[in-house]
Amino acid sequence: MSIRSQGTTLFAAILVLVASAVVLQLWLLTVSMEALLGGEYKTLVPAAAGSTLLLLVNAGLLRYVFRFDRQTHERELRGGQTIRF
Amino acid sequence: MSSETELKGCAGCARSAKWQRDFPIEWDGDHYVTRREMVKFLTLGSLLLASANWITVVASKLLHRGSKTESVIGLVSELDRNRSLLFRYPTEQDPCIAVRTPEGRIVAFSQVCTHLSCAVVYDKSKDGLFCPCHLGLFNLQGQPVAGPPTRPLQRITVEQRGEDLYATGLEG
């Protein structure tokens, strides 16, 4: 299995995780908006903190993707790996 | 041009159709790039959603800012005569109601029903705040007890200073 094929599978898994986190963030935003309009301000800060935490998780996963991509490119340039599309 | 010449240099695609040979799609490479781009795109969306959440926090602080001001809302004698008193707090656009409970305490709430924003009124027979639009009822702690409302009424803190009643802030 080529590095790119492995990367495709890996990125698909990461994509599922990131998409789930984004859906959770959407739900948190909906809850926040409802709380804001209902005058219940206590839930807003925890919801924003949760959303930020999910953003950090997503950013970490994206950083991993970039790092993997860079390593793949370096390997391609060195010719250490046969690239097959 | 013979078909053999056409296939020259295309190992492994001898059985593919001509249009596929003319416009080859490198599926592995394509999936690799599109998934990577999708992760980038979703992370950007994640950043926007987190920002939107913090904007709601800032908006709540701005809405809440006027709640620290104190204002005279009426006389205690007026409240005792009718058992309820209508006033506006913290701004002229915010209708509120103060009620003398059977135990003698004074409680005040926003008059805006948490269901669909109709004005609630004091109902002596039910000893609660009644919303005539959809027959919602709140008890004198502001909690919904009947009808469609599910969230409590916004509570206003009130203080008695001599004969005057003051609204001093919003709770929660």
Task: Describe this protein's structure.
- The complex is a heterodimer of chains A (85) and B (172).
- The model of chain A has no long low-confidence stretch (mean pLDDT 85).
- Chain A has 85 residues and is mostly helical.
- Helix content of chain A is 84%, strand content 0%.
- A 6-stranded antiparallel beta sheet of chain B has the order 1-10-9-4-3-2.
- Helices cover 32% and strands 28% of the residues of chain B.
- Chain B has 172 residues and is an alpha+beta fold.
- Chain B has helices at 3-7, 18-22, 27-64, 76-82; strands at 71-75, 84-88, 95-100, 106-110, 121-123, 128-131, 136-138, 144-146, 155-161, 164-170.
- Chain B contains 4 helices and 10 strands.
- In chain B, strand 5 and strand 6 (128-131) form a beta hairpin.
- At the A-B interface, helix 1 and helix 2 of A face helix 3 of B.
